[in-house]
Automatic annotation (TrEMBL):
<dbReference type="GO" id="GO:0046872">
    <property type="term" value="F:metal ion binding"/>
</dbReference>
<dbReference type="GO" id="GO:0006002">
    <property type="term" value="P:fructose 6-phosphate metabolic process"/>
</dbReference>
<protein>
    <recommendedName>
        <fullName>Phosphofructokinase domain-containing protein</fullName>
    </recommendedName>
</protein>
<keyword id="KW-0460">Magnesium</keyword>
<dbReference type="GO" id="GO:0030388">
    <property type="term" value="P:fructose 1,6-bisphosphate metabolic process"/>
</dbReference>
<dbReference type="GO" id="GO:0048029">
    <property type="term" value="F:monosaccharide binding"/>
</dbReference>
<dbReference type="GO" id="GO:0016208">
    <property type="term" value="F:AMP binding"/>
</dbReference>
<dbReference type="GO" id="GO:0070095">
    <property type="term" value="F:fructose-6-phosphate binding"/>
</dbReference>
<dbReference type="GO" id="GO:0042802">
    <property type="term" value="F:identical protein binding"/>
</dbReference>
<dbReference type="GO" id="GO:0005524">
    <property type="term" value="F:ATP binding"/>
</dbReference>
<keyword id="KW-0418">Kinase</keyword>
<dbReference type="InterPro" id="IPR000023">
    <property type="entry name" value="Phosphofructokinase_dom"/>
</dbReference>
<keyword id="KW-0808">Transferase</keyword>
<keyword id="KW-0963">Cytoplasm</keyword>
<dbReference type="Pfam" id="PF00365">
    <property type="entry name" value="PFK"/>
</dbReference>
<dbReference type="GO" id="GO:0005945">
    <property type="term" value="C:6-phosphofructokinase complex"/>
</dbReference>
<comment type="pathway">
    <text>Carbohydrate degradation; glycolysis; D-glyceraldehyde 3-phosphate and glycerone phosphate from D-glucose: step 3/4.</text>
</comment>
Length: 143
């Protein structure tokens, strides 16, 4: 028997497009109505890497349908498998920070993520699923 969901995260990745706030609102309101706590992840994978999370309430997602963009922010620059970080010598190095992302999800007690994004975002989600994270993908594109 599977464990019961108690807390989910939601994030938007990639470029901006119409409808992102509608998805955030629908997921959050349905989840909250079902007794779940919803955590918004700011700026896509960057928010997971930097641990920038905030609990979303009905009030947070009310009145956002007519607002453009995404209330959570989005980024297409942060790939947890190939993340550019300062090397301490004035340059940059590429690091795999997927374990750090999983640790942040665990610390936040997230039972699952709802990931809204395109090809790159979904590829990153697939990598995290292979590492044991529960993810529902909501596809979107600006192409």
């Amino acid at each position: 028997m599977g464990s019961k969901l108690r807390r989910i995260g939601i994030m938007t990745g990639g470029g901006d497009c119409p409808g992102l706030n509608a998805v955030i609102r629908a997921v959050a309101k349905a989840a909250i109505s079902g007794g779940l706590e919803v955590v918004g992840i700011e700026d896509g994978y960057l928010g997971l890497i930097e641990n920038r999370l905030r609990v979303l309430s009905y009030l947070d997602v009310s009145g956002i349908l007519t607002r453009g963009g995404t209330i959570l922010g989005s980024s297409n620059k942060a790939n947890p498998g190939e993340y550019a970080m300062p090397d301490g010598k004035g340059g940059w190095e590429i690091r795999d920070v997927r374990d750090q992302v999983l640790e942040h999800c665990s610390e936040a007690a997230l039972d699952a993520l709802v990931v809204i994004g395109g090809d790159g975002t979904m590829s990153g989600a697939a990598d995290l699923v292979e590492r044991g994270l529960n993810i529902v993908g909501v596809p979107k594109t600006i192409d």
